[in-house]
Amino acid sequence: MIYAKITGWGKCIPPATITNDEISQIVETNDEWITTRTGIKERRVSHVSTAELATVASQHALACAGIDGSDIDLVLLATCTPSTMVANTASLVQKNIGAQGAAACDTNAACSGFLYAIQNATAQIQAGMIKRAVVVAAERMTWYVNWAKRDSAVLFGDGAGAVVLEASETPSGLLGSKTGCDSTDRNILHIENYGTDMNKYNPTGPSELLFEGREIFKRAVKGMSEACDDVLNQAQLTLSDIDVLVPHQANLRIIQAMQQRLDINDDKVMVNIDKYGNTSAATIAIALCEAVEQGLIKPHSNIMSAAFGAGLTWAASYIKWGERTTPINISDAKLPDTDKTGLQLIEHAVKACQ
């Protein structure tokens, strides 16, 4: 049997931050209110495009795997904030990393996007259609934020993470997966004034992310937990077999509720929402990289991951890590410098929302 082994991993974190105290200069809130309700202390704001974030993360993942872009057969980009719709943003990432001729495709399942994309690329490798893929998740969620509304202003951030998948005979990579969508309540989390449903000749205002927090909380905990149970059954594993839980970083309370429902100890859960906020599809990709960097993921670790996003999409994945937890090579790829602070980067958007 052919498996899709993770051989490389990399991330791209924009340098500019906005702390909770700085957010309180924009909307009526404070650090205690944000921290106790979300677990977030700060978030990153990108001064570059989604494509540039995705490119740098992919370059780090390729170096980590010890291969070149020319070795890649597929570039799959998970994002709900593409730089361009036509041509797709993945095609620009493909060009930037030198993956000439590789298939390039964007996929949008919102916060579940990275796990959807991993499933897609794994299936193509297992079917023998391709041998190597870059799966990258990149988001500029701050582009959608209405800075006049506290609920959305405090939650979201920007960033990217990527993995390289390679065909292997060793049982590793994605070994169990469950994806789905509960579209009956898709309006509780959506972006208005965006897409071809809007009248472009009669603008109705800026695009804005709208959500019903309490309803999302209930559905997120239930949906992710049940998907994890399904994946455990597929893989014939028990919760005691799981070494690391890497959940979507949307809200610390959701993570804790899911952790409690699955009865998983704190030392097995990867949490970095305090540093980055909710970066949608990129949260799990970034968290996976940092779990390796911090030694939480060890050789042959059993990893459970779950996400819930707009649509309402959901996903859970069982990933078996390989033997290597250190990069083969280190890339010097980085974002261009910026002399602006996080608040300065959003200054125009804040004024437009007031």
Structural account:
With 354 residues, the chain is an alpha/beta fold. The chain has one domain: Thiolase/Chalcone synthase (Peroxisomal Thiolase, Chain A, domain 1), CATH 3.40.47. The chain has a 5-stranded mixed beta sheet, with helices on both faces. It has a 4-stranded mixed beta sheet with strand order 8-13-12-11, with helices on both faces. The N and C termini lie far apart (58 Å).
Q: Tell me which CATH architecture applies here.
A: 3-Layer(aba) Sandwich
Q: What's the CATH H-level homologous superfamily?
A: Thiolase/Chalcone synthase
Helical content band? 25-40%
Described by the principal axes of the CA atoms, the overall outline is globular
In quaternary terms, these chains amount to: single chain
What does the average pLDDT come to? 92
Number of self-contained structural domains: 1
